[in-house]
Every structure is written in structure tokens, then in C-alpha cells.
Fold each of these.
Amino acid sequence: MKVLSSGMCHNLDEQGFTVLSIEEKTQLNIALRVTPALCIVTVLLGMYYASWQVLAVLSVFGLLGTVTKRWQPFDVLYNTALRYIFRWPKLPPSPAPKRFACFIGLIFLLGATMSFYFGWIIFGYIFSIFYIFAAGLMAMTHFCVGSWVYHHILRK
């Protein structure tokens, strides 16, 4: 297995995974991409169907990812099923910067949900596209916009 680059390790450190060794980060490389990828798929479904209901459910997922360390439903799905199927390591608890990022994502999800609910379709798409962009960066590079905000704007 190829060792994770220093840039990706730095991105994971910004998410709060500073206690993990380079080897542990390398082992979790794919696993830490699963939740943002599943979130993207869910938002795309919500956009395709212009469904505020789909986005409302994902908003609950975002809320759980914000207020808990282990109960974001896609993380639970990964830890209880997917990791056994693919023989990947268990996800660690979500650190504070990652939970803060879930809060930022929740704001965009609520914006998309409310926009589709009130029939403001274009705004629903705009909120959704911003969410997909941020989650896509995280899924592809481990760079997390919300964690960056946590560290650089809140100075934590």
C-alpha cells in the first residue's frame, strides 16, 4: 500500500486526525472518503428529483455528524457493514474540526432543503452544488473546507 502524501496527511490533520500515525492515515485513506461520497450521491438524488425530503433526511445525518462523534449514519453504515465487506479498518470518532465541518454542511443542506420545499429550485441547486463541491474536495483530496474554516477563521 502506497503511503499517503504529506499534503493529504496535512489535510487529515486539519480535520482533527492528528493522533493518527501516517500508517494509520494511509490505512484509512479510502475509508475516510466513503461518507462524503455517499453524501454526494444523496445530494445528487435530491437534486435530480428536486426532493426536499431526501435533503431533509440528509440534513438529519448532518446534524448527527455535528453533535456526535460516532453516530453520523453513513459512518455507522461503514463501521457496521462496509468495513467488513471490504476488510477496511474501523473509522475513528469524528474530531471537533470534522464535526464543525458537518455543521457548515448542514447549513447548506438546510438551505437546499428549504429552497426545494418552497419551490425555489434554482436556489436549491445552488446550495446543493456548493455542498457537492466541498464534499467532493474532501472525498478526492481529504481537504475539508469546514475544517479549514475551523482552524483559520476561528483560530483553533
Amino acid sequence: MAILTEIRDPRVSDVTVTYVEVSPDMRQAKVHVSVMGDDAKGKLCLHGLQSSAGFLQSKISQRIDTRYTPQLKFELDMGVKNSIAMTKLLNEVLEDRPEQPGNDPDSDESTTQPDD
């Protein structure tokens, strides 16, 4: 949403719109955003976006031709942060796991031959 670059509120930075849910009557839109940084920065950015909602709605009304311009409601999308945290957790588990014999393809132990 290139419109986000027009917001002059210093609280709004490092924001990515992940997806938007629009109600069937086109009167409301839930805008899910991901914010780089900690939870405090995310909440601060969310307040900045809510403060800028009227400005954003006017910009959207200039770009789309509909009877109503949706009222914007912003929500933090934790999906990206959750997947990063899960990846870190899995990497830690793999690092702490002792090396299993037979997992190394170069090892002689991994190739077994039938006894005749």
C-alpha cells in the first residue's frame, strides 16, 4: 500500500500490510500489518495508524470508485514473528541434538550389507 509512505506520523515506520479483510458490504476493512521491532514498537505503530485512519481513508477514496470507502481498522499480524520464533526454536533443538550414528552419508556405518 504505497499510501503508507504518505503518512508523516513518526510512529508509523517499518510497516508491511500482510493482508486486508473487507466486509461484504464494503463498509469496513480490517488491515493486518506486520511491524519490524519489539511489541512496544508494534503497539506504538498501531496507534499511529489508527490516528491516520481518516487520512488513509480519504486517500483510498481518491483511488477507488465505490459508493462507500471502507472504515479502516488496523490489527497486528503476528504470523511473521511467530514463524521466525518457531524457526529459531527448531534451529536450537537441532543444535542441541547429539549427532546420531548413521545420519552421515559419508560414514561407513550408514551402509550395511547383507550377511551371506
Amino acid sequence: MHQHFRALGSGDRSAEAVAACLAAVSWWNQSVWSGMFADRRLLDRVLNRVLSRVLNRVLSRVLNRVGEIEADRNAAQVVSTGWGFGRGYQAVRKELRESVE
């Protein structure tokens, strides 16, 4: 396998050298993966763990962002309606409005 990489490293870009290098990489990749994950259950566990971590991170970021948006909306609604200060604020507002009219 090393001879194929040396040929490419020395500047040999012929189709044969590239094909031989790709075949060597394919063989090595297949032998490593088949040896490492000969037990299908091990492969399933590894993939499930990796995918669950990735999905958890993505979902938590999305939900955090949605929560921030919802909190911003709620804050805007509180400010616009005056509910942030309780019902007493509404009563004072009403009295002021009536006194101006």
C-alpha cells in the first residue's frame, strides 16, 4: 500500500497509480471496519451513541433558541399590556386616562 502512496507523492498522476492508491485505501478501509466492527451490535451501539449525542446537541440548541424567542415575545407582551406591574398599574393607567379626558 505504501508504494502506491509513494508513487503519488513523487508526482506520478497516471490513472494506474491513482486507481491502485484508491484500491489500497478501499481495501484498508474495508479491512479495518470489518475487523473493528465484526460484531454488528457493537457498530449499532457506537452509531446510536454518536447519533444520539449529535441529535441531543442540535435539539437542545433549537429548543433553547425557541425558548429565547418565546421569552422575548412574552416580555414584549408584558411591556405592551403593562401586566408586568400588576393590576394596580392598570388601575392607575385608567385613572390617568380618565383624568386627561
Amino acid sequence: MAHQTLARRHAEFAANLRTSDIPPEVRKGALLHLVDSLGVSIAGAAEGEESGAVARALAKKWATPEGATVYGVGSRMRPEMAALVNGSMAQALEMDDKHGSSLARPGSTVVPAVMAVAEDRNASIADALTAIVAGYETMIRLGFVARDRFLERGYHTSCLIGGFGAVAGVGRLGNHSADEIVSALGIAGTMASGIQESTRTGSTSKIIHGGWGAHSGIVAMDLASAGITGPESVYEGKMGFFQTHLTPIKGELEWDTAGAGLGSVWHLLDTAFKPYPCCQLMHAFIEAAKQILVDMARDRMDVAAIEAIHCKLAEPGLTLVTEPRERKLAPELRHEARFSLPFVVASALLYGDIGLESFSDDRLSSPTIRALAARITTAEDPESDYPAHCPARMEVKVAGRTYTKHVPFHPGSPEAALSPADVLDKFARNTQWLFGNRAHDTAEALLEIPETESVALIVTLLGEAAATSMQRA
């Protein structure tokens, strides 16, 4: 048998995947990831968020009478534009799901693309879930090829590979042939982009990374359907995706891992739900801070007496959340603060937790947070197993005592997984601004809609919950 390119293997998997091929627990997991993605999109579209203002401005500019819904805003757009906005909102507050070692974030790329096309075509929930599974499994496997090497170069891995996952999902939803999906994957390679400089400097262009992947996937599939052809060697080719983005390539690329287990191993189940609205690199540090606060309370130690804090984490994440130091100590924008280890650790120690309220304007300008953040030093952790996990090592010195914590698994990882109830609670917190006291009931209702129903029923349910909340207000 002739050697198959990775694009061909991914395309044939997506084209041939059927609802009956997917185990019940995987379909159930896909639905939970769908609900989570809807919730984080709605959170990003909140009127009080920087990203919410962007969503409303674009809704006025790009509105159409038909198409797909922009969650949290209610306007409709062409599917590819709705996917761009919904995916951007899903990534805006850093709460979209993420697969560990592949660095894929399919909840802000695959889900918005599939849902926009599914709504526009009046597809069933069953077909949408099958497409979501195809997209997750493709995107995650593609992330295995290089793992964290894109990040080392300054690229945002999830944005780079998001379009490929979206192609697989949209290709499955539209019953496209493997040949068409191969071409669309090749076209997506031309669109692949995403740099991390905005994360380092505090600008907000990174929030569009999820949306761009979703948008690119839809457009690439449309172009392939219209007759544009893409290179089947998009991944392995001399001028293909990996060679152009990673040359000179360090170490061996994991081609076999990226194509293994399609249809039998389901990596969607290993994809982490994020509990906190900030960069996942810092989630274990939030847990470490909580544990240290318990120990300090036992010893009757006051947070105000903290003298020094030392945090250790792996590169390239260390640089991402600690440099440039002057900006990380005093972030000016909410988005900037979500990537500041000093700000997040200081906030967690002072307030006991991190939530949406942690990034309010008052918190950003708090002299108390800034003073404690200034006592934080950092170093590289040579023992970290990143990117498989995002562990934390933290040391806090208080009045002559030293408190040390090692949190090996970030919250949401398979070893520290969020339960379905946790995910529903997260949805309720994220959507309370829109649904009020109906937020939790809405989450439960979404999980109970029969798969035979149309995706339009999901949109209707969201709209009715918002309308009822507004009437009560």
C-alpha cells in the first residue's frame, strides 16, 4: 500500500466518520464541550468586557438577515463571519478548552465553525456533534507533530492549526469527499497564522486567534468546493506548513503520533475544561496559592505579612507570562492581566480565588495587588513536564516561615478533571450577565435536547433564556 500523507489520512477520517462510529461517552463529551464553548463565547461578548464592545461593533458592520447567530449579541452574520466573532469571543477571556500536549484549543475554533455552518444549513445536533468530534480529533493530532515548538518560535499553536481542525469539522458536516477535504486542508495551510507578540506587549489582537481558525476553516472548505485545489503535501512538503514555520526543525517531528488511532483513540476526552479566566500556564499557581492560604490561616499568618514569593515554571511559558516585567507587574488592560503571572498570583493570594471579577478595572489599578506582585520573582523549572501539563512550584515567605507547594497537574487536566457539574457551574457563571437566574437551568436544558433536533433549537433556547431574563429585569 502506498504511503498516505497526513492530510489524506485526516481527510478520509473526517469524510468517513459516522455518528454510529463514535462511542456514547465521546458523544456525551462532545456535547459538554459544545455547551462550554457556548458559555465562554457568551462571556466574551458581555457588555462590560473589552471584547464585548468589539462583538457589538462588528455585529453592526457585518449583520445579515440570515446566516448564523453571534452568541450574546443576537445578530446574524454570514457563517464564516459569525464563526470569526464567536471564536474570538470564546478565546477572549482565556476560558476556552485546551488539549495538553498538543496545545490545541478546539473549543474556540472547531466548535464555532461547525455551529455556524450547522445553524445556516439547519443541520441536526447529531450531525453537528459528529462534525465536532472529527474536528477535535484532527486538530489535536496535528498538534502532536510539533507540540510546543511553535510556541518557542513565537507562534500561537492553536491559531496556526485551528483552521485545519475547522476544515475537518465543516467537511464532515457538509458531507464533502475526502478529495475536497484534502484540498481544503491544503488551502488552510496558506491561511495558517498567529503570532504571540500581542500577548507579550498587552495588545488585544490575540483574542481573534480562535475566531481566525474557525473562519479560515469555513472559507477553505468553501474555496475547495468551488474548485480551488490545495496541496496534499501541505504538512510534509518541502515548502509545506511545518517546514516553513519551523525550519531549522529541532528534533524529530511526530508524524506517526499525528495519524495514529483515528477512529479508535478519542483525544477529545483528554481535552481540559478551563476553570479560570486567564492563561492556563497560571492555573496550577492559583491552586498553589489557595493551598498556601489554608496553611497560612492555620498558622494565623496574614497575607499582608508576605515578604517574598518565588514561582517556577517551564519555558517558553515562563517568558510569556513574566516578560516584559514592568508590564506584567502593572498590566493596564484586562487582556494583558490574563497573561501576567505576578498579577494573577498576587490576586489569588489577596482574594482567595480568581474569577471574572478579578480582571475588573478596580483590580487592575489596585495598589495592593501591584505591591504584592512586585514581591514575586520567577525562574525556569527544569523538572516540568510541560506541555503535557502546566505544573506549578511556588514558595511564599511570611514572617520568617516558608510555605512551599508543588501542584503537578493543572486544574482541568485528566488527572485533575472538572466534573460535568463543574462545567455547568462554569457555564452559569459565564452567562449570568445575560441569562440571570436562568443560567444554570439553561445549561442543563442544553444537555437534554435530543440529538435528532436541529441546531436551531439550541439558538432558540439561548434566545428565550436571554429574553426572559430581560423581562424579569
